[in-house]
């Protein structure tokens, strides 16, 4: 039970993001590791349309990385304002 007169300090989004920025970005880039693993698996077990499969995964990989970069830049802009 909290004592009366003592308020809990609830951190703002800006404080939490500044403190855990590296962790946030690391979690956001976990799918990149999966996509790289998929490319490796495709080469280990090739099929007839391997170039198309690798090209699609590579396209998704690049698209995801660019999206995360844009999101991170926007969050930085929000935090700095």
Observed structural traits:
single chain; 81 residues; mainly alpha; 4 helices; 0% strand; elongated
Summarize the structure.
With 81 residues, this protein is mostly helical.
Overview of the structural elements:
The protein is mainly α and 81 residues long. The protein has helices at 13-19, 21-28, 30-44, 50-80. Helix 3 (30-44) packs antiparallel against helix 4 (50-80). It starts with 12 loop residues before the first helix and ends with a helix.
List the helices and strands and how they pair.
Layout: H1 13-19, H2 21-28, H3 30-44, H4 50-80
Helix pairs in contact: 3-4
Helix content: over 70%
**Cα separation of the termini:** 37 Å
Q: What does the main sheet amount to?
A: none
User: What is the element string, with H for helices and E for strands?
Assistant: HHHH
**β-strand amount:** under 5%
Query: Average pLDDT, to the nearest integer?
Result: 88
């Amino acid at each position: 039970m909290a004592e009366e007169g003592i308020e809990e300090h609830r951190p703002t989004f800006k404080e939490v993001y500044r403190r855990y920025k590296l962790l946030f970005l690391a979690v956001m880039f976990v799918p990149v590791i999966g996509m790289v693993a998929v490319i490796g698996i495709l080469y280990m077990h090739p099929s007839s349309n391997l170039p198309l499969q690798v090209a699609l995964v590579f396209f998704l990989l690049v698209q995801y990385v660019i999206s995360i970069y844009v999101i991170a830049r926007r969050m930085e802009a929000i935090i700095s304002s």
